Amino acid sequence: MNWLKEIRGFKNFLKLERGLSINSIESYIKDTQKLFQFQEIKNLNKKPEDINANDIHDFLVFLNDLHLAANSQARILSGIKAFFEYLILENLTQTDPTSLISAPKIIRKLPETLHYHEIEAMLSLIDLSSPQGTRNKAIIETMYSCGLRVSEAITLKISDCKFEEGFVRITGKGNKMRLVPIGSQAIHILKIYLSEIRANIEIQKGQEDIVFLNRRGKGLSRVMVFLIIKDLAEIAGIRKEVSPHTLRHSFATHLIEGGANLRAVQEMMGHESITTTEIYTHLDRDFLQQTLKEFHPRG
Predict the structure, then answer these.
(1) According to the per-residue pLDDT averaged within each range, which of 168-177, 194-203, 283-292 is highest?
(2) Which of 74, 99, 150, 199 is spaced 20 to 30 A from 111 at the CA atom?
């Protein structure tokens, strides 16, 4: 049994037999393609009929490691269940590997994610007439555009911002380096901040290459970034537990739900459980940039 062939058959089944809408069909297909991508990344080399419950379990853990929201994980599992129900109906397999997985209980509860309109609301409320406002917008745009941890944002260096190439070089956990594409809107506000705000600050010794500074010319603390984001969320009327990491979760969720390739998201996130394993291949920079442009709301 061939994955691509059976996914095409599944699509026809949903359209002709189930009479689903185009959007619903595309959602089911994207969910099934994610499982296909996962078994490729893991080098399982399994056909659809060879997938077992352990593989589904590992796939859910994999999605969790990508910081995908719990409700999104449940929806993807629902789509995969429908795929195997189709295979059984067509006598293409005898067993359903999802039958014993009623809910993703193995997945830890993740922090809230923000809808795109909520992020837009936060950004729209920033007072750009003040130096701190321009800086704060640049911070949020950069963190959301690149999926950064707060520690990565506050240590971001000017020398690591390759605007012409559309990339920033990030120093992640364990001092591991990765290149992450950055969206045009983040680049735009960063350039304004650097040229019009930061250039007029008296910079403290040792902070010359740090992008985000306070009014005294020193790098921002994790707590300061937390308060900036939390206060904006409250002003925007967002009744969620919002933190800097919420932007990172939202980054991954919005890309994956938009249809981005899982391997590209792994590379951009730089998650330890993914980047330390040899089975994940190095991705071309153009591929990463294209993924961000196509699937990120502010790409």
Answers:
(1) 194-203
(2) 99
Q: How would you write 228-260 as a 3-class SS string?
A: HHHHHHHHCCCCCCCCHHHHHHHHHHHHHHCCC
pLDDT recorded at residue 148: 95
8 classed as catalytic: no
Name the residue type at position 19: G
pLDDT, tens digit, 9 for 90 and up, residues 6-19 = 999 999 999 888 88
- Give the tokens for residue 292: 């961000």
DSSP E strand stretches across the chain: 161-162, 167-171, 177-181
Token look-up 């390759």 returns 162
- Looking at every residue in the chain, the average pLDDT score rounds to 87
Catalytic residue among 11, 280, 285, 298: 280
Joined tokens for residue 172: 């992640």
Per the annotation, the verdict on 116 as an active-site residue is no
Tokens encoding 196: 């019009």
pLDDT in tens, 143-167: 999 999 999 999 999 999 999 999 9
User: Which candidate, 124, 123, 157, places its Cα nearest to that of 250?
Assistant: 123
Query: Is 42 among the catalytic positions?
Result: no
Per DSSP, the three-state class of 94 is coil
Task: Indicate the pLDDT class of residue 263, thresholds 50, 70 and 90.
Answer: confident
Q: Identify whether 117 is a catalytic site residue.
A: no
Tell me the pTM. 0.68
Cα angle, residue 53 at apex, residues 49 and 55 outer, rounded to 5°: 80
State both tokens at 278: 């040899």
Q: What gap in Å lies between CA 105 and CA 168, rounded to an integer?
A: 36
